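Please check what follows.
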Amino acid sequence: MNTVVVEKHKTELEPHGHLKYKICVSGAAETGHCAKDALEKTKALGAAIIKAGAVLVTGATTGAPLWAAIGAKEVGGFVIGISPANSELEHVKKYHLPLDYHDIIIYTGFGYSGRNLLLTRSSDAVITVCGRIGTLNEFTIAFEDKKPQGVLEGSGGIADDIDEIIKRSHRGSGFVVEDTDPVKLVDKVIALIEDRKKDTNGD
């Protein structure tokens, strides 16, 4: 008679070496107010995410998120886009958003505000670059969710106001790290992800 051993379901989270971190780059679709070096730094940020062994997640949009996607693809990375549209046709025709530099685009059909929620919730961390009101929306959602976040300092837009926003909000400092160097910022964000996982597991 064969004996079948069923492993008891474990309630505690355990590390899974095969899973890659999903890091979102959140930033302005319209980049006229971004810093002069924001393009090159955001591309470097996308590349650094991939070189760190992670997957890039974007809002499948133009501007800074697309710059990050270009940087990620230049080093052979994998990029996931979360679209506000309900189909590829609507993505291109209604929202005028790109398909290039992404391996997968998920069509939510939830518009920008719904997309923003799914974008941050589906990522292990969010990095803010430049940005306007939509980027701020993604930042505050992730802040409320106590999600690890990074800010590329000096990139312009809302990214340069984050410290003051946190201070004036009187809700604590959250789990936010900052740096002007894209590679150092990614290292800090990954360290924060790992620290938060330890906290969640009770280590």
Observations:
- The first strand starts at residue 22 and ends at 27.
